[in-house]
Amino acid sequence: MNNISDKLVMTIILITILFVFGLIFSVKSPERKVLDSPIMWKDDYSNISLFRSNKINSEIKTKIEKSLVENKSKKYFFGDDFNVAKLENGFTHYQDNLGEIILPQSNLIGDHQIFNISTSIAASRKIFNISDINIKKSMNKMRLRGRLEEIKSGKLKSLIGKNRLIIDGGHNINSAISISNWVKQQNEKVHLICGMMNDKPHKEFVNQFESFVNSITLVDIPNQEGSISKEEFKKKLGNKNVHTAESIEESLIMNNKDENCIFLCAGSLYLAGEVLNLN
Question: What DSSP line would sit under 113-146, residue for residue?
């Protein structure tokens, strides 16, 4: 198994990260009807290994654990069966019953990514038996589209010159907290460009950013009937100091007076996709 290619290792790790994100963001917190509904597991999945990341609250954790009591799959829980910690100089310490690994810094942006990576590493070691050497090699070759992804070239990037363009498809409170924690660590000014779908926690999402960004600009998400209009979005936010723009391009141009700043487009995977399409 030690001859597995770097490409296969990265594919497995990224698929696992996307699977974990899918589980996390499928919970429409804080809607009680979702939290209180039963968790269904198909019989076809009764023999696969299940991994739980750290990015869920205690109430959801308890519900998941109860739903798995009669499930015969092997189960691995973050904090119990595998763990991770950030070390100095960007290194990451991963540990499970197979041993410890000191990993080089990942090329994914955001401290929260180490928890997603840890779930992927657990799957890679326990299911696919991938060697530690290949896991280490994959750390600086990862690419996760639409998750604090930096766009370094293209039509939209050319509009803002040397300023940075970052996109993130996060659309719930947990993702807003993770993204805003990254914003706090930046030395540059950050301009938030936000568009969301109708059924998302609009005010709660923006609340996580207002103390840490230099401006907030609301935009419509092109070609998405289920999105909230910038006018309705602004109305929901009340007296918050926010701006609106007629397009994604205009939102970049109107805030491009600062040098060495970051444009962060967040609030929806659909918005992230439109940014990529326009670029």
Answer: HHHHHHHHHHHHHHTS---HHHHHHHTTS---TT
